[in-house]
Design a protein that fits this description.
The structure holds two protein chains of two kinds.
Chain A: H1 2-8, H2 11-27, H3 30-46, H4 54-78, H5 83-110, H6 113-128, H7 132-163, H8 169-197, H9 214-231
Chain B: E1 3-13, E2 19-29, E3 33-38, H1 44-51, E4 59-64, E5 74-77, H2 90-94, H3 103-112, H4 128-141, E6 146-150, H5 158-173, E7 177-182, E8 194-199, E9 202-207, H6 209-212, H7 225-228
Parallel strand pairs in B: 3-7, 3-8, 5-6, 6-7
Antiparallel strand pairs in B: 1-2, 1-4, 8-9
Helix pairs in contact in B: 3-4
Classes of the chains: A mainly alpha, B alpha/beta.
Chain lengths: 233, 244
C-alpha cells in the first residue's frame, strides 16, 4: 500500500522533498539522523521489490560509505584530532551519507526514469524553454542505463576473473575497463536506435502533464515540517 | 497488388568505411509477410534499420507508401528489449509519448498480447518473452503501416515462440505488412509469402519460399527439416502436426 502510494505521488513533489531532505540531513544532529535513517530505511524496505540487482547496489553503497568515512577519520587524525573526536566526526559523516543514500534510493525506487525526466522538464522549462525536453530525455536515458551499466560491469568482472586470472591486478583492470567501454558503447548506440524507433526523440513525447491533488501538497508540507523538527532535535 | 516498400539500388557504407549493403533492389506489397534471411553479418538488421528510417542510404532510394520518410509509417522492434523499454511499469511504457491519448486502446493492445494483467508491474520483473511482447505492444500502438521485426524468435522458449507465430499470423490476416529477419527459417517459413536472402550485403534471392529454399544452403542458411526430408514446407509446432 505504501509502495503504491509513493509510486503514485507527483514526481515533482518527490524531487522537491529529496532536495529539502538532503539539506536538512546536512544540518541535523545524531538523534535526528537516526530517526531519518530509520524512516527512510523502512520506506526502502517497502520498495525493495523494485530494486534491480539488490546485493550489488547495497554492496557498492557500503563501499562508498566505508571509503568516505575512512578518509574522514584518517584526515582528522592526521590533522591532529584525538581518536574519540575523529571517530565521532566520522560517524556523523557516515550517518549523513547513509541518509543521503537512503533519500536517493527511495526516490529512485518510487519514481521511474520517465517520471523523473518529465519532472525535470517541468523544473527546467523556465530556463531551457523549448529545449527542456532534451534534458528530460537525457535524464531518463541515464537513469535507465544505470542498471544496464551495473550488469555489464558485473559480467565483465566475472569474465576477466575467469579468463585473465593469471594476469596482474593492474592488467586485469585495464582489460576490464576497455571491455566495459566497448560493451557500453554498443549498448548506447542500440539504445539510441531504440529511442528513435519509438519516436521518443521529439518534444511532443516529453510534454509534462501532472495531475496533483491538494492532498499531495498537504502531505508534502506536513512531511517537510516533520523533517525540519527532526533536524532541530 | 499495391507496392508499399520500394527499395531501388540501395547501398550503404558505414561512416568508418566498409560496405554493409550493396545495390539492393526489392519491392514489398501491401499485406505481405516477407522473411529477410541471411547468415550473421549479411546485412539483415542494417536493411531493416533503413526501412525503419534510422539509416539513410549512401546510394539509392527507399520509399514507403510513396514517402521517403519511413519513420512515420514503419515501426521497428529490435532484438534487445531492455534497450527499448523506458517506462517504469508496463502501463507507463505503453503510454510513453502518448500522454492524453486514450488509455483504453493501450489496455486493449496489452490484452491482445496477454500483458493486461501485468499493467502495473515494474518492467524489470518481466521475463524475456514478456519484455519482447511489451515492445511489440508499444509498436502496435503506433498503428504502423509496416511492422519490422528483428530476429523476433531469438531467445524465446517454445510457448513464447508459438505466441509469436500466432501474433504474426493474426497480424498478417489483419492486412499488416510485415518484414521479419531470421537466420533460422524453421519457426516461421510456413507463414511467409516471400523470402529475401542477403549474402554479404547483396540481395542473393528474392522469391516465393518454395523457389528460394532449394538454394538457401549456398548462402549460409539451413533449410527447414520438413523441406530437407522432402515433405515441402511444413507446419512448425508439434501441436499443428497430425501425430495419429
Amino acid at each position: 500500500m505504501i509502495e503504491t502510494a509513493l509510486q503514485s505521488f507527483d514526481p515533482r513533489i518527490k524531487i522537491l522533498s529529496g532536495v529539502i531532505l538532503g539539506l536538512l540531513v546536512w544540518q541535523a544532529g545524531f538523534a535526528g539522523l537516526v530517526i531519518y535513517l530509520f524512516l527512510l530505511g523502512a520506506l526502502s524496505w517497502q520498495l525493495r521489490a523494485t530494486l534491480p540487482g539488490q546485493r550489488h547496489v547495497l554492496k557498492s553503497y557500503g563501499w562508498f560509505l566505508l571509503l568516505w568515512t575512512g578518509a574522514k577519520l584518517g584526515m582528522d587524525i592526521w590533522s591532529g584530532a584525538s581518536l574519540p573526536v575523529a571517530s565521532l566526526a566520522a560517524s556523523l559523516l557516515a550517518a549523513r551519507l547513509s541518509c543521503l543514500l537512503a533519500v536517493g534510493l527511495v526516490l529512485a525506487l518510487s519514481t521511474s526514469s520517465r517520471q523523473l525526466g518529465m519532472a525535470l522538464t517541468w523544473f527546467l522549462r523556465p530556463v531551457l524553454r523549448s529545449h527542456a525536453w532534451k534534458g528530460a530525455l537525457a535524464l531518463a536515458l541515464m537513469v535507465h542505463f544505470l542498471p544496464i551499466t551495473w550488469l555489464t560491469l558485473a559480467q565483465m568482472r566475472e569474465t576477466t576473473s575467469r579468463r585473465c586470472s593469471h594476469l596482474g591486478l593492474f592488467r586485469r583492470m585495464l582489460i576490464m575497463g576497455q571491455a566495459v567501454m566497448r560493451n557500453l558503447g554498443q549498448k548506447t548506440w542500440n539504445q539510441t536506435l531504440g529511442v528513435a524507433c519509438r519516436r521518443l526523440d521529439r518534444p511532443e513525447a516529453w510534454q509534462p502533464k501532472f495531475r496533483t491533488g491538494i492532498g499531495q501538497w498537504g502531505c508534502f508540507v506536513m512531511l517537510m515540517g516533520a523533517g525540519v523538527a527532526l533536524a532541530l532535535l | 497488388m499495391t507496392r508499399v516498400i520500394v527499395i531501388d539500388n540501395l547501398s550503404y557504407t558505414y561512416p568508418g568505411g566498409g560496405d554493409a549493403l550493396t545495390a539492393v533492389t526489392l519491392e514489398i506489397h501491401q499485406g505481405e509477410l516477407v522473411l529477410l534471411a541471411g547468415a550473421n553479418g549479411s546485412g539483415k538488421s542494417t536493411l531493416l534499420a533503413h526501412i525503419a528510417g534510422l539509416y539513410a542510404p549512401t546510394i539509392g532510394t527507399l520509399t514507403i507508401d510513396g514517402t521517403d520518410d519511413p519513420r512515420t509509417l514503419a515501426r521497428l522492434v529490435m532484438q534487445d528489449a531492455d534497450l527499448q523499454i523506458l517506462g517504469g511499469t508496463v502501463g507507463e511504457d505503453l503510454m510513453l509519448g502518448r500522454e492524453g491519448a486514450d488509455e483504453a486502446t493501450a489496455r486493449s493492445t496489452a490484452a491482445r498480447l496477454d500483458l493486461l494483467a501485468h499493467w502495473d508491474k515494474p518492467v524489470q520483473t518481466l521475463s524475456w518473452g514478456m519484455k519482447r511482447k511489451l515492445c511489440l505492444a508499444a509498436a502496435l500502438l503506433d498503428d504502423p503501416a509496416v511492422l519490422l521485426l528483428d530476429e523476433p524468435f531469438s531467445g524465446l522458449d517454445y510457448p513464447s515462440a508459438r505466441e509469436m507465430r500466432a501474433f504474426l499470423a493474426s497480424s498478417k490476416a489483419a492486412g499488416m505488412t510485415l518484414v521479419v529477419t531470421v537466420h533460422d527459417l524453421e519457426p516461421v517459413i510456413d507463414l511467409a509469402d516471400r523470402m529475401a536472402v542477403l549474402d554479404a550485403g547483396r540481395l542473393a534471392l528474392f522469391d516465393l519460399p518454395e523457389k528460394t529454399l532449394p538454394q538457401v544452403h549456398r548462402h549460409g542458411i539451413r533449410p527447414p527439416c520438413s523441406w530437407r526430408s522432402g515433405a515441402g514446407i511444413g507446419a512448425w509446432g508439434y501441436e499443428d502436426l497430425d501425430l495419429s
